[in-house]
Amino acid sequence: MSVSASGYLRIGATDVDAWMNFGTDVLGLMDAQREDSAGARFLRMDDHPFRLMIEPAEADGLLATGLEFPCADSWQRTCEAAAEAGRPVTQGSAEEAKRRGVTAFATTSDPAGNTLELFWGRELDYTPLVSPQGISGFVTTYQQTGDLGFGHLVLPAPEIDAAAAFYTDVIGMGLTDTLYPPGMDGMKIQFYHANNPRQHSLALFNGPHPLGVVHIMVEVSSMDEVGGAMDRAKSAGVHFLATLGRHVNDNMCSVYLLAPGGIAVEYGYDGMLIDYENHVPTVSTEGDLWGHEYSFPGVND
Questions:
Q1: If you count Cβ atoms within 10 Å of the first and of the last residue's Cβ in the chain, which end, N or C, has fewer?
Q2: Burial class (CB in 10 A: 0-12, 13-18, 19+), 176
Q3: What SUPFAM superfamilies does the annotation carry (predicted)?
Q4: Residue 249 pLDDT > 60, yes or no?
Q5: What's the average model confidence in pLDDT over 169-185?
Q6: Residue 188 near residue 160 (C-beta atoms within 8 A)
Q7: Residues 114, 39: contact at Cβ < 8 Å?
Q8: pLDDT at 1 over 80
């Protein structure tokens, strides 16, 4: 097992201020107030310098996923393995590493074309989270096991077998579950864990997505905090992509909200933690124990 966690996301936004308002006023994330010459804004969830970088862009969507490695040796071996697998690998400059708050990083892509930033040595500033909405804390660590990452994300991968081999053989993730959603012939989602107890840090969907990401997930520590976010979202006029529900495979009790620009954000509580060394990958044919009634703009209208 190589990769430690899904560490951060770079998100392109046509309206950075609207995304920041959504992040702070609805999700309860903290404005990191970092200076950036390119006009990016930063949202933090914990003692990391940021977890979400919101960058001015001509189109909305995911720009890159930052995957964290535990040390320089593990990171270097993975970069070399990616190159040997035929993926382009570009070393990041010292200036760009500083911008990301990491010791070193390299940019590559998976076989589906999703951009990845492999990094090690996150430079923590230990500034405590002060949520503008009073969130007690986001679930990003667990006891002595260390970093759980920002949460999880689901990436599009029409050629899912090639992408799956890349994430297991090169990146060093492990399969936890394969979901065949009911009533959706031909659809498949595969879930992968990193070197931490979160049930999945990344998943692959066997289809395209115009925003480069199916959804991202952030987790809070109580059901009341999910309920508070629902109230804030309703007051702000945010579209609910899915009602409150509980997933089968990772036990997450969550609601799905649409961020400005259309990225789906799962806001959850009570996600499953696993002992990945003894976990046997499952196959699911049901997505939810209950709830999660979906409403896609332009489809269910």
A1: C
A2: buried
A3: Glyoxalase/Bleomycin resistance protein/Dihydroxybiphenyl dioxygenase
A4: yes
A5: 95
A6: yes
A7: no
A8: no
DSSP state of 279: P
Domains and CATH numbers, the chain: 5-291 (3.10.180.10)
Per-residue pLDDT reduced to its tens digit, 188-225: 999 999 999 999 999 999 999 999 999 999 999 999 99
How close are the terminal C-alpha atoms of the chain, in Å? 44
Q: How far apart are CA 236 and CA 147, in angstroms?
A: 32
Sheet holding 215-220, edge to edge: 282-284, 174-179, 189-193, 202-205, 152-156, 215-220, 264-269, 253-258, 240-247, 288-291
Tokens representing 198? 């979160």
Helices (DSSP H) in the chain: which residue ranges?
A: 16-21, 72-84, 94-100, 160-165, 223-236
Q: What is d(CA 220, CA 240) in angstroms, rounded to the nearest whole number? A: 18
Going by pLDDT thresholds of 50, 70 and 90, the confidence category of residue 145 is low
Task: Give the H/E segment covering residue 257.
Answer: strand 253-258
Q: What percent of the chain has pLDDT over 90?
A: 92
Judge whether 117 and 75 are in contact, CB under 8 Å. Answer: no
Give the Cβ contact number of residue 271 at 10 Å. 22
DSSP secondary structure, 116-135, as one string: EEEEEEE----PPP--TT--
118 contact partners, CB below 8 Å, separation of at least 6: 67, 69, 75, 78, 79, 82, 105, 106, 107, 108
Of 207, 204, 229, which is closest to residue 218 (Cα–Cα)?
229
Return the structure tokens found at 233.
């979202």
Q: Given this model, what pLDDT does residue 125 score?
A: 86
Q: For residues 142 and 209, give the distance between their C-alpha atoms in angstroms, rounded to a whole number.
A: 32
Task: Provide φ and ψ at 135, rounded to 5°.
Answer: -65, 130
